[in-house]
Amino acid sequence: MAKIKKEGFMQGVLSLMCSQVIIKILGLVYSMYLTNREGFGDSGNAIYMSGYQVYAMLLTLSSIGVPNAISKLVSEKLALGDRKGADRIFKIAFVTFAFIGFGGTLLLFVGARVIANTWLQIPEAEYTLMTLSPAIFFVSIASVIRGYFNGRQKMTATARSQTVEQIFKTTLTIIIVEIVAICTNVNTELMAAGANLATTFATFLSFSYIFALYKMNRREEYREAKSDEVRIKRRRESAKSIIKKILAVSIPISLSSLLSSVNKNIDSVTVVRLLKPLIGEATAKAKYGILSSKVDILTSMPLAFNIAFATSLVPVIAGACVKKDMQTINKRLRLSLLITILIALPCTFGMALYATPILELLFPNASSGGTLLAISALTITFTALAQTINGALQGLGKIRVPAFALGCGVLTKLIANILLIPIEGIYENGAAIGSVLCHIVSFTIVYQVLKRTVKLDFHISEMMIKPLIVTVLMSLISYGIYQGVLILGIASRIATIIAIVTAVMVYVILIVLLKVLSEEDIYMLPAGDKLYRFLKKIGIYR
Predict the structure, then answer these.
(1) Is residue 173 within 8 Å of 131, Cβ to Cβ?
(2) Quick one: residue 324, left, alpha or beta (phi over 0 = left, psi -120 to 50 = alpha)?
(3) What is the DSSP string of 178-239?
(4) Each residue's pLDDT tens digit, 359-388
(5) Cα(347)–Cα(349) distance, integer angstroms
(6) Alpha-carbon distance values, 461 to 234, 286, 333 (Å)
(7) 138, 185, 186, 189: which is closest to 164 by C-alpha?
(8) Per-residue pLDDT tens for 258-309?
(9) Rounded to two decimals, what is the model's pTM?
């Protein structure tokens, strides 16, 4: 392992983006394996994901807000040249969240039976909850180290550890599920538990990796802290004061993540419960399995690209805010939102347009759910934009706003689920409609607050015009080719691949030809100067 160097904004974004793409691709791989595996399928996904969503919610309470909280506090200390203070924040946070994570582990392990039987009404989920419980402890302390690296603008460390975790998770999931299937004669309940046991092993290995990385980079950071001690004398903060600061930042951020998890748990609590009297328990569980696994994984894949901007914006904007550098805030925010739009819009249109063909391509043994996916695809753009804005608001100190906005969205979803799911002809689609409404409400609130907090030198509606034109043209061209290929008698799955590849190529070409990115935008990209010179040479830019 090499020392991790401080990176520029777009370098950090690129590191996290590449990591998240790998993570999502590997996540899709093991999801395809589980869904297509004989004896698992949509019913196995219902058991697996119901337990995982509860784990995710408890994990949120113990650690999810920690990386951004530590990142913000550390970056503020470093902006003032106080490296020793940044180091002290890390040490106190590590001990604090070790205790919190251990408490979360105990709570999930001891309460597994009650949660599975009473809350989820899926008794088979008990073992999945128990096997997941130790992961809460390891993720909690790993999150502190990731936040420390992020605050020092060393995003590569976080990217590597997350990639390592997903590699192990994918590999171990397949190995353990196959072993359990052989030993239990394809027992779906125990296979689901085995899949979640793989998650626990992967989190332990990921923590071990990032802790080793931290120890290797510790010597250089210690020298920096010692040199600061000579140059500046600052009042030493008490441990109690630092813990209060950490919790004051992490709790609102965690609350936002918790509400996101609650949003998913609304489906785990309402879908089976409301559909069971109407279509039977087995069918209701299968519908929930489609929604919580295939649909959730596919609609969250585009967010893998975008989470990099939300994560990188926190320390950059926090540091700029301390220095009152509004120009940097505006430049970084504008570029981040523009690229968010360029990522999210084509994914929304493409997934809605090709919902059924995509499911047939990826899940040939369990391809139902086209309508659910098409409706849910509408959440992508609003979720991605809110995600980026939330990162900016956290950096600006408006850490309670994302939680409030998502809380309003979650309440909207709960009401929509209760009202729509029992209606004949809507059923499980009501949950997807509820998710769309949830993220529209959340985005609207955070964007309005951002406009009031920062004097933006751009309007998001104006930024969307060219990307929307490009996306519509791409969709029309791609769909025309898809239909043409089908007329020629080529198999639907091959036609889907051709259409998607064509869509990507056409989209990139149209972005360049219509000059969606300005000269300044291009220069802010990695190797942007070389890219701009090339585009100027071929006559695109003058």
Answers:
(1) no
(2) left
(3) HHHHHHHTS-HHHHHHHHHHHHHHHHHHHHHHHHHHHHHHHHHHHHHHHHHHHH---PPPPH
(4) 998 888 778 888 999 999 999 999 999 988
(5) 6
(6) 46, 40, 15
(7) 138
(8) 677 677 778 878 888 888 888 888 888 888 878 877 888 888 888 877 776 6
(9) 0.70
d(CA 263, CA 431): 10
**Contact 348/380 with Cβ under 8 angstroms?**
yes
- Both structure tokens of 446: 């955070």
Scored b (16 or more CB within 10 A) or e, 201-213 reads: bbbbbbbebbbeb
pLDDT tens digit sequence for 189-240: 788 888 888 888 988 998 998 888 888 877 666 555 555 554 445 556 677 7
Q: How far apart are CA 315 and CA 143, in angstroms?
A: 15
Rounded-to-integer distance, Cα 266 and Cα 262, Å = 6
Among the listed residues 190, 288, 264, the one whose alpha carbon sits nearest the alpha carbon of residue 413: 264
- Other Cβ atoms closer than 10 A to 12: 25
**C-alpha to C-alpha distance for 102 and 509, rounded to whole angstroms:** 51
Please give the biggest Cα pair distance in the chain: 76
Q: Position 126: which residue type?
A: E
Residues 6 or more apart in contact with residue 313 via CB below 8 angstroms:
332, 333, 336, 388, 391, 392, 394, 395
Instruction: For CA atoms 333, 339, 341, 347, give the dihedral sign.
Output: negative
CA atoms within 13 Å, Cβ hemisphere of 283: 9
Q: Which residue in this structure is represented by tokens 């209760």?
A: 418
Cβ–Cβ under 8 Å, residues 317 and 395: yes
10 Å CB burial of residue 272 (0-12, 13-18, 19+) is buried
The candidate with the shortest Cα–Cα distance to 174, out of 20, 29, 289, 363, is: 29
Which token pair is 69?
């909280």
Nearest in space to 296 (alpha carbons), one of 253, 276, 266, 273: 266
**Residue 479 contacts residue 499 (beta carbons within 8 Å):** yes
3-state secondary structure string across 309-354: HHHHHHHHHHHHHHCCCHHHHHHHHHHHHHHHHHHHHHHHHHHHHC
Q: How far apart are CA 450 and CA 397, in angstroms?
A: 11
